[in-house]
Amino acid sequence: MWTRGSESFKGLLISPKIVCIKMIQLSYKFDQNSSSLELAGMPDVSNGDSNQTIGILSSWSLKIIGSPILEGEKEHLDELMQVILKYSRSYISGIRTKLVSKKNIVTIFPSGSNHKLILKSSKKDVNPLEIILDDSELSDLTRCFDLLRFDPRFSIKWDFNLELPFSKRYIINNSRKTTNKFNIFYSLAIFIICTSIFLFIPINNKNELREIDQRSFNPQQNKN
Fold this sequence. Notes:
By secondary structure, the chain is of the alpha+beta class. It has helices at 74-92, 135-149, 168-199, 205-216, 219-223, and strands at 2-5, 8-9, 12-13, 17-20, 26-31, 35-42, 56-64, 70-71, 99-100, 106-111, 114-119, 129-133. The chain has 5 helices and 12 strands. The chain is globular.
């Protein structure tokens, strides 16, 4: 960036001069087994950031094994972090539920024993991206975001608040919903299994009919 200006010293006017300010570009990376989050930016001079601190985010990229590289604006990263971190907290608390970001661009919900992450593009005519995460991949992604949040090399204000713990009522109510869903599923599965077993049990209808016929035609046995 180039700036032009004039300076005065002891009442004397110094001629205007061109000053070259070298912008410091920084890049930090957070690596886990299945996820890699990289952010680039520069210090926010107006905020008094040091030369090693990113206060202005210029770009970010997220690599998840088996998925395309994710990039976007800061608001996209805000939404993704908010949903993933809250979903992980809910999952650890025994709550399996669907979560959607504020602007409806990030969605995650349980999918069998895995988790389905859906990302909507801000561009038109672009189909949503679906990513299936297992427990270890979800843990790696959550770890990357946690490391970013508490890293002192960043002075960026993220647009979400996760510090408030879940209330007991919230945990109990949502746990009951999850339990009820699984109870219905397990009851249906047990019913189908039991019905299938009964279908394969042999029935001796012919032997019973023969015994009844013999008794009906033997009057002495009927008297006894």
